[in-house]
Amino acid sequence: MSATNTATAADWLEGARPHTWANAIAPVLAGTAAAVTTGGASFPRALLALVVALALIIGVNYANDYSDGIRGTDDDRSGPLRLTGSGLVEPTLVKYAAFACFGVAGVAGIALSLLSTWWLILVGAVCIAGAWFYTGGENPYGYRGLGEVAVFIFFGLVAVLGTEFTQSGQITWRGLGLAVTIGALSSSVNLANNLRDIPTDSVTGKITLAVRLGDAGTRALWLSLVGGSVVLTIALALGQLAALLGLLAVPLWVLASGPVRKGAQGKDLIPVLGLTGRGMLLWSVMMLNAAFI
Fold first, then answer.
1. How many degrees, rounded to 5, is the angle at CA 107 between CA 186 and CA 178?
2. E strands within the chain?
3. Which one of 26, 256, 271, 280 counts the least CB within 10 Å of its CB?
4. CA–CA gap between residue 251 and residue 232 (Å, rounded)
5. CA–CA separation, 43 vs 204, rounded Å?
6. Which stretches are annotated as coiled coil (predicted)?
């Protein structure tokens, strides 16, 4: 499909996939909550971490749009608009948008590293490389069933613990618990997206974890990830009772689980992504509130 370059600002915003931004905001809030409990919270550093996380997730969304689009993976999608696959934008422009976002993340990340410790610059470089090679390059790991693992590592462990460390100069067991929970929830958002796309991904050769596990196995894993997050929340409350505030997110996750449990397909699975993400965001806000109690 030839590009028309007629995309509007609203199209570019949709291409940035705002429903995924909770995956970037939640870990920064959770990491800041961990820093608060040790008395090392810093608003300016938290803000820089947020810029890094948001720029990375928007960059990876544009990178996925470009890479999947030129491979033809997005030719038959049931999800949100893709700029490249729809033919609205020249692929090169989408790639440049991804690189621009990675550049913003790099600049903010370097500033944050210089305020804490220089070797975090290397961690940031690995994160940017991971964002591009998820679907980019000749052998993207997202096409090998490693997408959820990467999300767990980068938007769970690295994002939460990195946020905590850049503010407090240490990593705590509580921070690790928060990081694992965020990683599980963030992975479940990605998994729901791939569950929806099993039919088209199977045809185009995009072998995601969902394709490997199959429909039933993917649904079981999704329920395990979200259910495990509830268990982890209760475990966190053993050290700080106020962490039970995180259970306020459970109703959203119960609603999100409906289409998964009932075998919904295609577009009917789209609400799962938004509800799970909003639940994760609410959970992280409650964890931050709990840290001040």
1. 25
2. none
3. 271
4. 16
5. 45
6. none
pLDDT tens track for 64-122? 999 888 877 655 555 577 888 888 889 999 999 999 999 999 999 999 999 999 999 99
- In the chain the domains, ranked by start, together with CATH numbers, are 9-292 (1.10.600)
Give the mean model confidence (pLDDT) for residues 25-42: 95
Contacts of 280 (CB under 8 A, 6+ apart): 22, 23, 26, 182, 185, 186, 189, 249
Q: What whole-number distance in Å separates Cα of residue 225 and Cα of residue 35?
A: 25
The span from the CA of 175 to the CA of 126, in Å, is 21
Distance from the Cα of residue 42 to its chain's centroid: 23
Quote the mean pLDDT of the chain: 92
pLDDT for 137 equals 83
Residue owning tokens 């600049």: 107
**Bridge partners of residue 207, in order along the sequence:** 144
What are the distances in angstroms from CA 64 to CA 44, 51, 226, 265? 30, 20, 25, 22
The pair of three-digit structure tokens given for residue 105, joined into one six-digit string = 């993340």
Kindly tell me if the per-residue pLDDT of 62 is higher than 80.
Answer: yes
Exposed / middle / buried, residue 293 (Cβ in 10 Å: 0-12, 13-18, 19+): exposed
